[in-house]
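Reminder: ligand-aware prediction takes two inputs, not one.
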Amino acid sequence: MIGAFVGIFEAQFSQCFWAHEEAALGLWTDCGSSLQVALLDMNKTEAESLMQTLTKQYGQERLLFLHCDVEQEEQVKAAFQKTMDTFGGIHILCNNAGILNESTWEKMISVNLVGVIRATYLVLEHMNKLKGGQGGVIVNTASLAGIGPLVSCPVYTASKHGVVGFTRAMSAASALSGYGVRVNCLCPGFVQTGLFSNIPARLGPFSHLKDGTQLLVEKFGIVNMSQVVEAFFELVTDETKDGAALLVFQQERKYMPAVSVTD
Ligand SMILES: NC(=O)C1=CN([C@@H]2O[C@H](COP(=O)(O)OP(=O)(O)OC[C@H]3O[C@@H](n4cnc5c(N)ncnc54)[C@H](O)[C@@H]3O)[C@@H](O)[C@H]2O)C=CC1
Ligand SMILES: CCCCCC(=O)/C=C/C=C\C=C\C=C\[C@@H](O)[C@@H](O)CCCC(=O)O
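Here is what comes back for the chain with L6LC73OR:
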């Protein structure tokens, strides 16, 4: 999991990660009897404190923390190699690292979109059945802003539309090429995390549109982290899901089919 230490997926461990272990393990024949997790993140401070808690709860042998910035190709490559060396395989990748700051928009594209593409291509070196891998599933964290515009955040919106588009095309490319790797994306609404704080400052040149964003928050409500985690596992364990965009609202979750230009 990349981008693992604060926010949406921090809850994954305390709430339901291992509750889904059996279903996840059932997908591949070479997994052994337990789910092991490598957490890749650039935030060392948060990592150290969460790792202490997690290792107490689940045991050191099932967890690995690797410092890794998704903007740095060599770091991502080395982190996947270390995961392979430690656990013997990679079957699930969650590309979750993301930032929101409309002022530093080139960096936002670099982390939110280029980072997802980079990690996907690098992990395929290990997962791809044509290269000796066992196949697997990739889940990219996009956003509702990957489906429709978040007006106060044009570049964030572009980065997340990019993630949805990449997911759908990569899924089809993988299937047609025989890689044995499914690719899906999660599109949550607003979730109470660090990224969803100090919003006016994050909107940069569009901070004057903050009231419109607040209206959207009131309209959509706040999604619980556990709802996002459940949706993540649906995309991992349901083998019929490939190229899917799963929208996570406060009251429900639903799939958003790609628009066909020939309809
Ligand atoms: N909070 C929200 O309302 C929503 C968030 N999302 C998406 O969910 C994902 C997670 O966001 P949150 O948990 O809310 O944010 P967060 O800021 O709480 O957590 C983001 C995590 O990504 C890591 N990260 C950031 N840049 C990185 C980099 N260059 N390399 C490696 N790790 C990096 C951070 O250290 C942190 O652990 C993001 O992709 C975000 O766009 C999607 C919809 C709604
Ligand atoms: C500004 C904080 C961003 C936090 C991170 C994030 O990704 C949150 C996204 C949450 C919701 C986005 C919703 C976008 C909706 C629009 O695309 C559109 O569907 C809204 C239409 C409004 C209407 O009334 O028709």
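The chain has a mean pLDDT of 93. Strands lie at 37-41, 63-67, 92-95, 136-141, 181-188, 245-248, 253-255. We will return to this case in the review session.
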